[in-house]
Amino acid sequence: MRELLLLALLSPFYLLPAQAQTIVVGAEDDWYPYSGKVGGEAQGMAEDIVRAAFAASGVDVRFVSLPYARCVHMVRTGELEACFDTSRTRENEGDFLWPARPMFTSKALIYARADSLDHDLGPTALHGKHVAVTNGYEYGSDFDGDVTVTREVTNQTIYSFRMLALGRVQYALAFEKVARYLIDTHPQEFSGKVKVVGLSAETQLYCVFSRKFPDAATGLALFDRGFATIQANGTYRDILASWR
């Protein structure tokens, strides 16, 4: 009888669901609409993908919005378990644990002033040129490994565009959705003043995991499993469609 009473008292606790695991992930704060800090919160297509992938594996996510260069530095040093959005290049291949699949692809476009006669440029055309880039970003191995380029490093893509519009650099590199968002939201500054003249690289973007953070390999496995699930059940497709 005492055993039955004890079982009755304990049974509500056995019926409670297990507390979900939580992972802290660094989110790039200035790459909207892919990822950005909007209204004080991490928002964007990448946030939606990462959140859905971990949710499919029963894991909650807490995003910490950080400048991209700081975000990847913290993952490299083991201060942070994971971060996005990172392009995979020859230069950073050994720095991180990489998921089985990229989250999405994006084009790193070459911009010039609107009066430029350039067109169909590739990364080799930037050899020896003065180019505005964003701190820590990867633009493809051909450009990233070119030591002849004079890089004007800015903290945000909008500053690269401003330098270009003012004629302080010959070119600026920007990713397609980010560039379109900046031109649409700052038409007086950029509309009719800058234009696409080439492609540096079409890159695959990942949520990367630390080689030094304790048990980050488990987090990576959970992400991979969840990402495969949302690709199979249509959630991933719906997220991409919502950000077109």
Automatic annotation (TrEMBL):
Identification of the protein by name: Polar amino acid transport system substrate-binding protein
Organism: Silvimonas terrae
InterPro entries: Solute-binding_3/MltF_N
Domain of life: Bacteria
Solute-binding protein family 3/N-terminal domain span: 22-244
Alphabetical UniProt keywords: Signal
Signal sequence residues: 1-20
The organism's taxonomic lineage, starting at the top: Bacteria, Pseudomonadati, Pseudomonadota, Betaproteobacteria, Neisseriales
A family per Pfam: SBP_bac_3
Protein's UniProt keywords contain Signal: yes
